[in-house]
Design brief:
By secondary structure, the chain is mainly alpha-helical. The protein has 7 helices and no strands. Helix 1 runs antiparallel to helix 6, helix 4 runs antiparallel to helix 5 and helix 5 packs antiparallel against helix 6.
């Protein structure tokens, strides 16, 4: 059976270093994304209109529910599914390396059909999978993903 009492949303205690790493990589990865876009010859203007949105428009009342969804609800939901459920169960069956790679692949495929997102999500998913594996807690993966999504909106 896949679910047991330990499969709940309980966040295992882990070293603070994993939370700091998650927060750091969440912000830094946005800059890495720009380099990936250059390598694959993509541009934000071609694939996203985030540059056209001002912070005032972003935080307006009509966008606040979307913002909460994108920055908090979606990352937590994705991490619970892909790390706490998929990766954890794959690790029990096949070991850490296979679990990390397959969970990252499935996480990336979950962002189809947008090739632009898949290229970026592969590396972000890999960071999150490694954080989850090393920390043995979902908390750092939550922090990384939330910080990553927030950084996309607030960093140039």
């Amino acid at each position: 059976m896949f679910l047991d009492k330990k499969s709940t949303i309980y966040i295992n205690k882990t070293s603070l270093k994993y939370y700091f790493l998650a927060f750091f990589f969440g912000f830094i990865y946005v800059y890495f994304q720009n380099e990936l876009l250059n390598i694959f010859d993509f541009t934000y203007s071609k694939n996203s209109n985030l540059q056209d949105i001002t912070l005032i428009e972003l935080f307006s009342k009509r966008n606040i529910s979307s913002l909460i969804g994108i920055i908090i609800i979606i990352p937590i939901s994705e991490e619970l599914f892909f790390r706490k459920f998929i990766q954890k169960n794959l690790k029990n069956e096949y070991g850490s390396m296979i679990a990390i790679l397959l969970a990252t692949l499935l996480f990336s495929l979950g962002h189809l059909p947008d090739l632009y997102q898949i290229l970026l999500v592969v590396f972000g998913g890999l960071i999150s999978a490694i954080l989850f594996n090393q920390s043995k807690s979902i908390g750092p993966s939550f922090i990384f993903h939330i910080t990553w999504n927030l950084s996309v909106f607030i960093l140039p």
